[in-house]
Design a protein that fits this description.
Elements lengths: L1 H42 L9 E7 L5 E8 L8 E8 L7 E7 L6 E5 L2 E4 L2 E4 L5 E2 L4
């Protein structure tokens, strides 16, 4: 009978250790995911870009989209950057940043097709494509 009790206690100890290890692993993974999202949000989220000063805009041939360009001054330690903002003319979507490039002060925008825009030589298929120099 004593052997049965010892085996049962040992089995319960193993289960408890497994549960504690599982909980600890889950907490560590959630913490790392939170830190990873925080880094993305702080440094790579295109919706957090500075507004900048208005440069120019061009409307797509079918009038469905308008691309507005803005220049931002990074201050004394960084160069100018150009931000491209896509405006949905026919739908009630909010605007979307689709272009962000460093060391540019002007924007040349031309539409190749209804859904294809060229911004400073970069070809984007709207509304899904984005260009962000930080991901190059």
């Amino acid at each position: 009978m004593s052997e049965y009790i010892d085996a049962n206690v040992t089995s319960m100890k193993k289960k408890a250790k497994r549960n504690v290890l599982g909980c600890f692993s889950t907490v560590v993974l959630l913490f790392l995911a939170f830190i990873g999202y925080g880094v993305y949000w702080a440094f790579y989220d295109m919706e957090r870009l500075p507004t900048g000063e208005y440069l120019t805009e061009e409307t797509s041939p079918d009038g469905k989209y308008t691309l507005k360009a803005y220049v931002t001054n990074g201050g004394a330690t960084t160069s100018y950057s150009v931000r491209g903002e896509l405006v949905f003319n026919e739908k009630s979507h909010k605007t979307k940043n689709i272009y962000w490039n460093y060391k540019e002060e002007s924007a040349e925008i031309s539409w190749k097709h209804n859904d294809t825009v060229v911004i400073n030589g970069k070809i984007l298929n709207v509304p899904h494509d984005k260009f962000d120099f930080r991901h190059q």
